[in-house]
Amino acid sequence: MKFQSTSAAAALLLGQAFGYPLPSSNLLRREVPQEHSHDLFLTITNEALAKNNPKGITDAVFGLLGNAAAANGAGSVTNLDCLKQETADQAFTNGKAAKDIRLMAGALVYQALERNTGKVGLASVTCTEQAVNPEIEAVKPHQDPASANAASINKGITLELAKQLKAIGADPNLALLSGTFAPGDLNDATAKGNTCDDTDPQLGCIFTTGKLVLDASQDEVASAVSAVSQTFTGTGGIQATDLVDLSKFSVQGGAAAPADNSNAATTSQAAAQATPPPAASSGSAPSTASGNNVQTFTGSLGGPPPPVVSGTGNRPFSVNGNTFVNIGAALGRSCDIQHNACADAVNSGQLSGGVGQCEDQNTQCKAAASGASNSNASNTSNASDNASNGGVNNAASGNNADSGNAGNDNAGSSAATGDFGSCSDPSIKFANGLDGRTEPAFAPVNEADFSHGSALAIKVISDFICDRLNSSCKASAAVVSTCQSASAAASQLTGQAAADAFNKALGV
């Protein structure tokens, strides 16, 4: 697998350093060829890294690149052969400090991903420094599948990763998702090998294109971890079977992946109790271990939409391990995942009739989502409006009462539509320590869809989000208009009150 740097990496550095929006037409998030193969785990690693990034590593993707390209985002790391390990190590440390098993698991899987080499069949250079965390130290990166002894080396890496995952209370089958592509042609002059570069920030194109080759079977993983005891207790979680159907991928050696069995699907009891995962995708399932499935759409082209699990907490809605504040955003994500699966089925020849039927189904799904969002909003509108009116107007000290009311008036409109296009959760956070700042700042909550460094003025972030909703996300005109009004209103406020006003206006 080959990763290559572009001038976008330098542009990304500038955007994060100075907190201004980069033109969406020139730069997509981490726009480097082949970086989208395991996008989910890069996203999780970046989420963990953002909690504390003392060496200023720009993005997890730079750890997957060759040294020349990696230098553009290495921060103060000088041994570029170890940039990937340093990134994983810091992300794991941050996840452990937060007792967040999802972040720890993401960092471990990231550590096991294959790193760029200059040609097909060339193994990557080994980092000779010792990691701070023994769990990271135990896991080595996959090697190019066409390199010498890669099959046995990569299988060993996957099984060791599974052990480390079980030890922290995570799903050991996540280790299978660290695998790479089928071996490429040693005479391939492009050095690309078998790769993919389709944007899929929710998962990764190696999964959605079916190009992942499993290094081991689920039975082999279960056997490898059978004697491993859990040594860490935390919260959060992510399950391999909530992300992909492992039975659809081939296992190294040519055999089809076995169907799930009770042993292979079992994760540690403590992890399951800490954060019960969403049930496997099923549009008709009435509930899951962690709450009710509020996705009522029954269309099934390409498979049913994944459940939208309604639970408790600050982000009570969950879709395939991703959490949301607003039911409309969660239902929209569920519809989009189904839409992508439908299009993939058409493009692969598994479903006849063209992609138009997928578009029609997605429209119907989002119409149903809008109805559900309306119902949810009407059930809670009185309490939330009263709380928001009091909080926002008080924060405005009376002088900005019109701004506070503008934000509240827009909330019902946006929540009713729930249409953020191909994106989800456009909310803004106000927090300390963003991008190493000593003062609190604003930043997008959803870095996958709205990649932007932090800024001291909310309007820098809110205007960027509105622009992205209009351009890349293709959100409805009503939502874009609401966003622009919310941005103007929030700019009249300060601190958390400004973020709350913007988020309330968009219903997130």
Description:
By secondary structure, this protein is mainly alpha-helical. The chain is 43% helix and 5% strand. The protein folds into 2 domains: 7-277, no CATH class; 377-506, no CATH class. It contains 18 helices and 9 strands. A hairpin with a 2-residue loop joins strand 3 and strand 4. The chain is globular. 54% of the residues are buried. The model is unreliable at 1-34, 255-290 and 377-417 (pLDDT under 50). Residues 255-314, 370-418 are annotated as: Disordered. InterPro entries: Appressorial_penetr-assoc.
Helicity, as a percent range? 40-55%
Share of residues in strands: under 5%
- Tell me the span between the first and last alpha carbons: 38 Å
Shape: globular
Class by SSE composition: mainly alpha
- The number of strands is 9
Brief write-up:
Keywords: Signal. With 508 residues, this protein is mainly alpha-helical.
How do the helices and strands line up, and which of them pair or pack?
Elements (H helix, E strand, L loop, with lengths): L6 H12 L20 H11 L17 H4 L12 H15 L3 H12 L21 H5 L11 H18 L37 H4 L4 E2 L3 H7 L15 H4 L6 E2 L10 H4 L3 H6 L12 E2 L2 E3 L15 E2 L6 E3 L2 E3 L2 H21 L8 H40 L5 H17 L10 E4 L9 E4 L13 H13 L6 H14 L4 H12 L2
For this entry, give a set of tags.
two-stranded parallel ribbon; 5-stranded antiparallel beta sheet; single chain; 9 strands; 18 helices; 508 residues; mainly alpha
